[in-house]
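Structure first, sequence second, as always.
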């Protein structure tokens, strides 16, 4: 029933226990699902959805992909890499003006030959209308653009995370563990929507906990419920997702999206120093900070088992050297 995929990633991604981190916290068993290791174009969660987008773009005979987000967008970098492999060009609308230093994901976008259009405006929502304008402009020039929404969040992109639930379910079964929660960082909401739909379709034992790193909770809940329902329908399921099926935690955004907080920096250092594992400053550092706060507040019993989803984003570290000594 699933729509076709254009293969990009290497699956299953590893599921690894983090015993030294768990010991440092005196808390539950923690497993980390390594979707930073999806194995294509520096990895990360966007690769799963891009397999569906690229298949659709090729079926529609597109010759250029148009998308957008911020200068350190993992989505834009992974999309540019995927477009190249599929033989397509890519235009990326990036909010604000060109940063002084071409680092991290922006450097990778340049190496991939993405055509970058800065909006010269800090308003992130403006990217959405600009993407449409760029696509119109390309059409008038005789091109065949295929638009992927900012952050890659739509029902089609979320299908990758319905499949993810099945993949993770087989790994958990092989290990003989039944986690109570799956924790992830939530941005444009497609990942949590796909997991929520998948968890319901496959009867997963865990509850899905998102930690928002950008949008207000109410906005996330609405988006997640809507995208989850649409994705389930696309996958051929008639399950319903209600707003009260969606759990999103607030309190870890700090001054804003993409601005590392002291808790995020401390979390990145703790995980690096216990597990030799790197989180990112925009998403997973804040998402894991949310999990650690919940454990420290006694909200998760020591006999529980948790899965943390590492959604990638490590290239962003190189654009944020300030996290080296950021402390609360
Ligand atoms: C995009 C992204 C997320 C959030 O995923 P959404 O589907 O946008 O909610 C989390 N982590 C990383 C590293 C990302 O690039």
């Amino acid at each position: 029933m699933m729509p076709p995929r254009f293969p990009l990633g290497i699956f299953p991604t590893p599921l690894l226990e983090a015993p030294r981190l768990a010991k440092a916290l005196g808390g539950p068993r923690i497993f980390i699902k390594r979707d930073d290791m999806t194995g294509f174009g520096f990895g990360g969660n966007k690769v799963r959805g891009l397999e569906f987008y690229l298949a659709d773009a090729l079926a529609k005979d597109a010759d250029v992909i148009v998308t957008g987000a911020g200068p350190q967008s993992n989505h834009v970098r992974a999309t540019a890499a995927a477009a190249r492999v599929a033989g397509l060009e890519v235009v990326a609308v990036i909010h604000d003006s060109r940063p002084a230093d071409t680092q991290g994901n922006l450097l990778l976008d340049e190496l991939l030959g993405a055509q970058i259009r800065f909006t010269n405006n800090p308003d992130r929502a403006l990217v959405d209308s600009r993407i449409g304008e760029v696509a119109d402009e390309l059409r008038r020039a005789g091109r065949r653009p295929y638009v992927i929404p900012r952050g890659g969040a739509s029902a089609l992109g979320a299908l990758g995370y319905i499949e993810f639930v099945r993949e993770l379910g087989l790994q958990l079964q092989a290990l003989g563990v039944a986690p109570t929660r799956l924790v992830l960082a939530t941005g444009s909401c497609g990942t949590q929507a796909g997991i929520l739909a998948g968890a319901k379709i496959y009867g997963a034992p865990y509850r899905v906990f998102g930690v928002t790193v950008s949008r207000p909770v109410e906005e996330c809940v609405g988006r997640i419920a809507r995208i989850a329902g649409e994705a389930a329908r696309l996958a051929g399921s008639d399950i319903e997702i209600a707003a009260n099926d969606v759990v999103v935690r607030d309190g870890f955004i700090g001054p804003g999206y993409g601005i590392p907080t002291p808790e995020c920096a401390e979390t990145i250092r703790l995980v690096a120093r216990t597990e030799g594992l790197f989180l990112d400053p925009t998403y997973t550092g804040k998402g894991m900070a949310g999990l650690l706060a919940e454990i420290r507040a006694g909200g998760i019993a020591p006999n529980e088992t948790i899965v943390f989803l590492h959604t990638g984003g490590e290239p962003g570290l190189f654009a944020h050297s300030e996290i080296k000594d950021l402390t609360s």
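Margin note: The beta strands are 15-17, 29-34, 64-69, 89-94, 115-118, 145-147, 181-186, 207-212, 247-249, 305-310.
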